[in-house]
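Hey, I'm writing a tutorial for new members on how sequence and structure tokens pair up, and I'd like a real worked example in the thread rather than a made-up one. If someone can provide the structure for the chain below, I'll link this post from the tutorial.
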Amino acid sequence: SYPYLQKKVTLVEAISMAGGFTQIAARNRTRIIRVENGIEKIIEVKVDAITNSGKKGQDVTLHPEDVIVVPESFF
């Protein structure tokens, strides 16, 4: 758990602030769990497309109660 900052923070920035990915992280299966109007919404993000391909427009701005989930890779 990390305190939400007063400025807008994107998914990639938040992962960086947390120390980055582990070696076994499934970067392209990263999910953001967000509740809007009482309904849980899951946003899937392929982080490699953002970081390696320069598609910064695909980076997601986080909301205060968002939960980031990065599963382990199978390999």
